[in-house]
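Sanity check

After download, print the first record. It should look like this:
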Amino acid sequence: MDTLMATAGLVAVGAVTPGPNNLVVMRAAARSGLAGALPAILGIVLGGLALLAVVAAGGAALFDLVPRSRWAVTFVGCLYLAWLGGALVVSSFRVTGADGSTGPAEQSGGAAALFGFQFLNPKSWVMALTATSAVQASGSVAGFVQLAALFVLIPTVCLLAWSSLGALLTSALRRPDVRAWFDRAMGCLLFASALLLLLEA
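Expected structure tokens:
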């Protein structure tokens, strides 16, 4: 029980602190309301769960066999974040269409993309590796099932909290100038996240 509680704390801290997943969900909710963020939340949670399963099945052994693979995963993940941030900034300078969209960046944080990003997110790998090591140390299959439940429940609650924060901004973002500056800020934060992850690699 102590191991599970400690792991729950680790997952909660990782899920609630600002990061790429939270920024993307917050932006999606700010643009389309809470319902508009649900596909992004689904992609992130299912991607994290799939990553946990891969790690538990021994997929992380690749990092031991090929040490540079860890850096490669981080680098590709950082490239994706930098591209996503850059796309947001560039699209913010385009004229907003009648439907409120600003271009390709609108779809860049979709469920499928965010599902895949979990496998390129160093923060997700660290959480999955640490949590799985704790469960394997206890040698309990039931413990792993509980861990999987934590990886669904805790991130979902935290992402819903971030999306609720974003939804509060929806009315303000009806103004094209405010919306453009919001996208620029989100883009710069995503780009900064990519840079920080790369420096920590």
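If your output differs, re-run the checksum step. Summary of this record's structure: Residues 40 and 111 are 5 Å apart (CA to CA).
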